[in-house]
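Letters spell out the chain; the tokens describe the backbone. To illustrate:

===
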Amino acid sequence: MGIKEEKRKKIMTSEKKFLNMDELSEHVGMSKSFLYKRVCNKTIPFIKLGTRTVFVKEEIDKWVLSGGQMSIELPILQRI
């Protein structure tokens, strides 16, 4: 097993709640440039902490399972 595969296995089995860009790239198997474009377009769930961009692992997993679609939950309005 190569170093990259070991690193990926470690990330997949870790119970980390937040991922940085490097960890995210390994976790989802996508290039950092692709992911940075998604952040710029706001088409991936992320959190900005000052200059850092972090990702909630649970939200990313949902995003991947939905085919990369952001889910927008609109409130149900009462009929007048």
User: Anything to note?
Assistant: The first strand starts at residue 18 and ends at 19. Helices lie at 3-13, 21-28, 32-40, 57-65. Residues 3-65 form a domain with the Multidrug-efflux Transporter Regulator; Chain: A; Domain 2 fold (CATH 1.10.1660).
